[in-house]
Every structure is written in structure tokens, then in C-alpha cells.
Amino acid sequence: MNIPILFEDDFLLAADKPAGILSAPDRWDPDLPVAAAILSKGRGRLWAVHRLDKDTTGVLLLARSEEAHRALSRTFETRGVAKVYRALVRGTPDWEESSCDLPLSPDGDAQHRTIVDAHRGKPSRTAFRVLAAFRDYALVEARPETGRTHQVRVHLAALGFPVACDPLYGDGKPVLLSGIKRKWKGDPFEERPLLARTALHAASVEFPHPGTERTLRIEAPDPKDLRASLAQLEKW
């Protein structure tokens, strides 16, 4: 399986993770494909620095040594990393910029979801900006200032604009051309979704390089399914 490389040196590797690939092994199903294992072939051991959900695409950082892993982990823990996500959401916000600081608790219900918890939740904050608005959808930029599990997804859902196709915090329904194009005349039994996974993309990560301390910004282009959805939304 091919995973595009965005940056690589003796300290770290940044990959453009596709949907369907784990960033860390699954404790329930150890046979699922994991990015670090795939990318380690020919390189030796790699250490995952942070996690992306299985269906989230975009920039994934992996350390190439234990020392680099410790340094990068400290940077993440001390919020020395600026992360930017792009999300296609259901609904059209009536704001251009907003933020959400609802406290979150992971594994908070029977579905093992992260929940808003005013009493036991950890402080969490995400800044949002609408990049493009369409009929029934919007493209939103998210800048999480904390790193809670599913933070962007939960905060968007709490604002009333869940990530499209999200099965945990939204309706899980795919993005279909028949739902976008007026007077669509295709066969509903043969229609293939434009996008059928949680529409969240890790667009960029900026952080001090663990070897040089110089600021390094790594970007990943929008994946094919998101590009296709946006192209159709812009038409109709």
C-alpha cells in the first residue's frame, strides 16, 4: 500500500495518511493496516508522534529515533504545535469565525464517544473559520488549541454543524451527487457516493524541528474524495 511522503530526514517522517489506515495499532483488531508498520519497510522502526482517526486524512508525523520521538512528544504535550484541519460539515453556519471551548471527556458513553462534560471534562478549545459556504454544506477550517480525542468532530457537532458522513457525531450519511445537483436524473441504485467517510482532513502541521529548532510547516493537499465533493458543491 502506497502512502505519500511529504517530508523526510534523519529525525522524522511526515506522511499524507489516506483514509482507512490507522496511525496506531488497534487493540481490538491487530490485523488492521497501520501507517508506521507500512512506512517502516526499508527504513527501520518508526514511532508515531500523534494520532489521526482511521478515516481522517492528511499530515501524520512519525519519529525516526527514540530521541526524536521524545522531543516531538514534548512539543505536542506543551502545545508547541499548530494544527490546521479542513472539514466538510453539514449545514451552513451564520458566522464567518467562531470558537468552541466546551470541556470534553473521552470514552464518555456506551458508544465510547468523547462527550461534552461540564463537571469532569478537560479544558478544550477549537477555533473555526468558514472557508466556503454551499447549499446544505460548508467547508470549515479548524484550529484545535488542545488535543482531546475527536475534539474537532465533537466541537463542530456541538455547534450544530457535524462533519459530513461522521457515523459517531453526525448522521453518517454519504455525500451524494443526487443530494447536491438539482434535477439529478441518475439511477439511485447505481449511484456511488462522492464521499463516504468522515470528511476531516489534517491540512497542515507547524512545529519546531527536533534537530534544528527551526519552524517546519508541512502541508497535505485535499484528498480526491473531498476535492470531488467540493467541485460539485461549487457547481450547484
Written account of the structure:
This protein is an alpha+beta fold. The protein has one domain (5-235): Pseudouridine synthase. Helices cover 16% and strands 28% of the residues. The protein has four helices and twelve strands; from the N terminus they run E-E-H-E-E-H-E-E-E-E-E-E-H-E-E-H. The chain has helices spanning 35-39, 66-77, 151-158, 224-235, and strands at residues 5-8, 12-17, 47-48, 57-63, 82-90, 97-100, 104-105, 115-116, 126-133, 137-144, 200-208, 215-219. The strands form two sheets. Strands 1, 2, 3, 4, 5, 6, 9, 10, 11 and 12 form a ten-stranded mixed sheet that branches. Strands 7-8 form a two-stranded antiparallel ribbon. The longest helix is centred in the N-terminal third of the chain and has 12 residues, at 66-77. The radius of gyration is 18 Å and the shape is globular.
